[in-house]
Amino acid sequence: MKIWFSALVLLMSIQIFSQSRVTGSVYSATDENPMYDVEVRLRGTNHVVRTDRIGYFQFLDVTPGHYVLDIKQVSYAEYEQSVTVEEGTKDLGIIYLQYAPQDVTVGLITLTEDELASEESGAQSSVGLLQSSRDVFARTAAFELGSFWYRPRGYDNKYNDVLFNGVRMNKISNDRVNFGNWGGLNDITRYPRELTFGIEPSDHYFSDLGGVTYFDTRPSNLRAGHSFAYSLTNRSYRQRLMYTYNTGLSAKGWGFAASASRRWAEEGRMEGTFYDAWAYYLGVEKKFNDNHTLYLSAIGAPTRRSTASPNTQEVFDLKGVTYNAYWGWQDGVKRNERVRKTHEPLITLTHDWKINERTNLLTTAGVQFGEDSRSRLDWYRANNPSPLYYRKFPSWFQNLNDGDANHPSVLAAIDSWQNDENYYQINWQELYNANLLSPTGRASYTLVADVNRDLTTSMNSLLRTELSENFVLRAGVYYQGVNSSLFRRLEDLLGAQYALDKNPFAREYQSGDNDENNPDRHVLEGEKMQYDYEIAHNQIQGFVQGNYSVANWDFTGSFKLSNTSMQREGHFNHFAFNDSYGKSDKYSFLDYGAKLGVVYKIDGRNYVTLNAAHFTNAPTVNEVFPLQRLSNRSIPDLKSAVINSGDINYILRAPRLRIRATAYASQIKNEIEQAFGYIQVGSTTGSTYNVFASEIMANVEKQYLGTELGVEANLTTRFTANVVASLAQNLYKNNPDLYRFTEVPELGDIEGLGGTRYVGTTYLRNYRVATSPQKAASVGLQYRDPKYWWVGISANYLADNYVSIAGARRTEAMLRDPEMPSMPYPEVTEESLRRLLAQERFSDEFMVNLNIGKTFRIGRYYVGLTGMINNVLNNKNYKTSGFEQLRLGNFRALDDTNFANVFGNRYWYDPGTSYFLNMFVRF
What we know:
Largest sheet: 27 strands, antiparallel
Radius of gyration: 30 Å
Number of helices: 13
Number of strands: 47
Strand content: over 45%
Distance between the termini: 52 Å
């Protein structure tokens, strides 16, 4: 018996002695004191511990393998470290957390995406995502310059990839991201699993020109416990409530997380706009053992919000920068015609398989569905009801009266704009009266909605394996199939009995029926009208990446191969097109890409990195089908865009000083750009007609050159300074081809393709690409008190911002007299062309931002109060963006000063000072 007992004690002693442990201590880098009750997680296990009074933590019974240590604490930057565990004790020593109060100023990302979610351009920005970046330049630029529409390097939003559990969120229509799909879920999206900047290698995807953001929404990656936040702001919404709860992984391997938010405003800071948004997240995770984990995630954000109009300078001078033409009074309530409703939930199921100590396979199946609709007023054989109809402008009456600014009609228009709300806002009662007085019950005015219903199915799998101590291989395959149903829906008859589904601009010899299979159709509320079609879009992509490390060098090579196909099927037989009904040709594009990343470690603090990339991107649905609402046709010789890019960086990561200095160059060839609007063809003296057009510039070449500098210095233990500067030159580098697609045929259309015309070469070489200020600088100073309050201020300068140009103005066709097509207008001179075709450069502007906050602990509760004020000086002269109207389609119209003022450039202005106040409680 004694022998058996001794053997048992010996066996237990051996087991206890051979247990693997991971230990360490967490200290504040600000005052070098130990930090108590900090959450420390060993990602890849269900181990979560908290530090004791001396900052010490330990993990027991850890299976040998490769893990990621994750440390999160309110007011401090998240800390991650790769850890290899072997038998015995792994002591990580003292870990210092950097005090970063910005990490508790939740909400700024939401504000950025809300303000920039413009349907009219590519101005929607992903810069808010960069706030989570550890890159000095990207993070500072996002916090300080992002609220003023600055985008690093000026790339279009379509060049940023966003993935949720491997599911790509970029829309097939234009490759841009709708951040509203998860707006309000800041607790879930605050810390992306990966965020790359530019063309640097990604561990999860062959990223595009602007980088990739990868969200992993499993509960074990989120902070455990409760979180409640309430916010006040004067941006697109006024108030926000947010609650999140995460159980963390239990001893049985189960984890549950949920988050919900509500954002609302009866009226935002732009007149006549409202905001009504909810958001939800649910995550369920089951860790079966050390090798297999399964997790289900669902996100959604049902949203209703109204939008504001871009205006000409004449309108801004009359009504100010918060004026919005899209609303009017109805029964004592402000009603906005432009309302966007979205709800496109995403559900993913992910299997994380640890095949062995060196190999991991991550597989996700996902489905996204829902509806995105955008309403607007429509009219049939009636006057344009918009306050922005050009015949209401004082400049129009001045044009009719030989430029006489004091003519009674001009003065009367000015008075109406200043004093008659039924003149400068929508007169809803007048629209109802017109419909109610119709003897047949036919509507003259209706409210319609352009609807997009997507059903997206996705499957992706990513393998990571360590082939040796120096070489890591990653290989992924991604499939995404999208079926889009797009149509116009009659929302409100505005008192009428029915709407007639005909086109009022049809010629005498045309039926005018939007669907000749159902002529003279009477449409009721909720029914489809004007257009109805589907898009089938499929993409499969393979991705391989190898990372090799030797001595002071790291080399990463990435490759992609993808196939993209798309096809349109029309359900209406439009009167003007012989190819509107039925299926189009199927368009397929085979794309490839290669990247190289090199890191040279001079020492433990100094690095030099080099990145280079060459790849192609298939055109989007909007580029393949320029007039997709009405026709299957496309432009000739469709090609994928070709992208070349490179950058070289110097990086310093010292305890008190962080620097990144960068020089970069990017070239895009074979790109396609699209613009919509009415264009006047002919002269202002008789031979003119107006057509609604989709204009396509094909074979566009662009060049992006620039330098970036980001510096963050801890001047003392309490003062930190930030300096960011960017100098860019973004240019068109060739003269593209211009095509025009219209609803009615034009003289000069391509034979057999009425409504399609090759306009000619548009001379754009060396014009600026208008996407963002091309010069920007920010200098900031922050005081951080050891008692956990802070105050910071930044001075921001933005320059070299340009209006987006209209290609049609810069063609030879614009110079020709319609009465003598072979001859230019006699008054055309080189001086007049230079004057009229010069690209407008906006004024340089200076902005000041302020932030302040306090965090403290009450027992087990962490409480924070934060505030941000942007544009403290209330600068309302800053034009964030703008575009030339297509309407001025010939030289004589452009050269007529009064007429040109009527159709002047349209702008968006920064409305002035904004604030965001936030209170949160976490436990």
